[in-house]
Amino acid sequence: MARIRQADVDEVKARVNIADVIGERVALKPAGVGSMKGLCPFHDERSPSFNVRPQVGYYHCFGCGESGDVYSFLRAMDHVSFTEAVERMAARVGYTLHYEDGGAAPETTGRSRLYAANAAAAEYFRAQLMSPEAETGRRFLGERGFDAGAAAHFGVGYAPKGWSNLLDHLSAQKFSRDELVQAGLVSQGQRGVYDRFRGRLVWPIRDVTGQVIGFGARKLFDDDQGPKYLNTPETPIYKKAQVLYGLDLAKRDISRSHRVVVVEGYTDVMACHLAGCHHRDRLVRYGVRQRPHHRAPSGDGR
Ligand SMILES: [Zn+2]
Predict the structure, then answer these.
(1) pLDDT at 254
(2) Looking at residue 238, what is its pLDDT?
(3) 23 Cα–ligand 1 center, Å
(4) What is the pLDDT of residues 161-209, one digit of tens each?
(5) How far is the CA of 201 from the CAs of 15, 197, 233, in angstroms?
(6) N or C, which terminus of the chain has less Cβ within 10 Å?
């Protein structure tokens, strides 16, 4: 495994505001000078004993004793490796990491490129939703009550028909074929690589920090031989069993209300979010695309 330079590990930690990161999962309130507190995400409690001190970059729970820095928080909370925790935070603050030489593992060093490729693909798909060819896709959304605003809110896009639209677009942005294969955006065939998603509506799937890690794509045309829904395959950054579609948009409400609503499909998630706007107190906005082998991100998981 390639090691991230210690100086970078420290620098990224200094640039990240730990209260922002934890605040995305735990509702924090000011608790005296230089301190915030909230309900501990690591044990069940009714009065807050979980303290965060942003200046020191440290959290500590007086109830269960869990403590550490932003990296240990991510490791405990999201079950990521130390390296991945550092990489996520580096991506968050836009810091380029350096790896120590010797046995650089491509699946580790390439991770930030995979995030970048997914982000570029999401942008491309989103722009394509306005194209004439995407009319069928726009109609599909319209029939389900989703207007352009709703589509934009969820970043819904369109993957054009053809074998190399995305491939050409991202190649022009200097992504290598190998990176695109690893990101699951193109598939490896016998005669080269080709776009995985063709003639489909696509929903970007984001991790809890809002980074695009993959896509779910719905079939639109009868001549499409593929399955109704096609997702990104398992990649170094997209682990199906750990992903909850819509979590990035719902986490604030979840940590505020300590309630979670889980539904089945992408459009169901969208519908819940839109309905939630009118029934904010009643409906917690949340969605899932896989079976939830996942710890609820806040409190007791109800
Ligand atoms: Zn605790």
Answers:
(1) 66
(2) 87
(3) 15
(4) 999 999 999 999 989 999 999 999 999 888 889 999 999 999 999 887 7
(5) 37, 9, 17
(6) C
